[in-house]
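Long-time lurker, first post. I've been practising inverse folding by hand and with some scripts of my own, and I keep getting stuck on stretches where the structure tokens seem ambiguous. Below is the full token string for one chain I'm working on. Before anyone asks, I'm not after the true native sequence, just a reasonable design that respects the backbone. If someone could post their per-position residues I'd love to compare against what I wrote down in my notebook.
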């Protein structure tokens, strides 16, 4: 016994339009546009206005380890605990026509600490561990942290991602919606090394 299902004609047309659109997105000009990837950190810097932000972030030194990774030393000063009274905004821009194009991805986390740990907890714990602190839960205690011999292994929570340049602005505000810290970072998302050897 075999059950056959015929898609209604309008649905059938939409289905194939989706397949064609997806194929054009993933392959552009014969080159793969998205797929397995490595993230190369290009730059990390303060983006606060006029140095008025209370959270201090300083890149002390960088050293190239290989094609995709740098060895960092950072200094971070938190004048207050980072807890759920804080709000976090994430603004991701992508590179297009020699300019940063905003609104590739926007996220607003009202319970700043908890939601940040849910989304990028692995990376944050790795950063704190390089300063000799084991972070298990919120809040992140106030204090001065000196991160040493830090290598960032970044993933965006997806197996594939569009290849391009990206800029991420992470802004922290207090309960009165006053910005207390801002860190910007720039990345190249490139085909994964072993994936490049296959093509």
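-- Answer (accepted) --
I ran through it position by position. Result:
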């Amino acid at each position: 016994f075999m059950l056959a299902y015929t898609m209604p004609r309008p649905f059938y047309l939409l289905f194939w339009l989706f397949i064609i659109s997806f194929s054009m997105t993933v392959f552009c000009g014969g080159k793969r546009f998205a797929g397995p990837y490595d993230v190369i950190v290009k730059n990390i810097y303060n983006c606060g206005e006029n140095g008025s932000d209370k959270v201090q972030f300083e890149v002390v030194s960088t050293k190239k380890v290989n094609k995709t990774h740098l060895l960092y030393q950072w200094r971070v000063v938190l004048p207050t605990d980072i807890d759920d009274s804080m709000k976090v905004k994430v603004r991701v821009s992508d590179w297009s026509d020699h300019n940063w194009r905003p609104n590739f991805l926007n996220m607003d986390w009202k319970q700043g600490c908890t939601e940040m740990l849910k989304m990028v907890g692995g990376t944050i714990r790795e950063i704190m561990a390089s300063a000799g602190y084991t972070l298990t839960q919120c809040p992140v205690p106030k204090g001065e942290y000196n991160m040493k011999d830090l290598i960032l292994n970044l993933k965006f929570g997806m197996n594939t991602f569009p290849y391009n340049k990206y800029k991420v602005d992470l802004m922290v505000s207090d309960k009165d919606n006053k910005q207390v810290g801002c860190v910007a970072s720039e990345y190249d998302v490139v085909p994964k090394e072993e994936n490049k050897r296959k093509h």
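A couple of notes from the structure itself: The chain has three helices and twelve strands. The radius of gyration is 21 Å. Happy to go over any region you disagree with.
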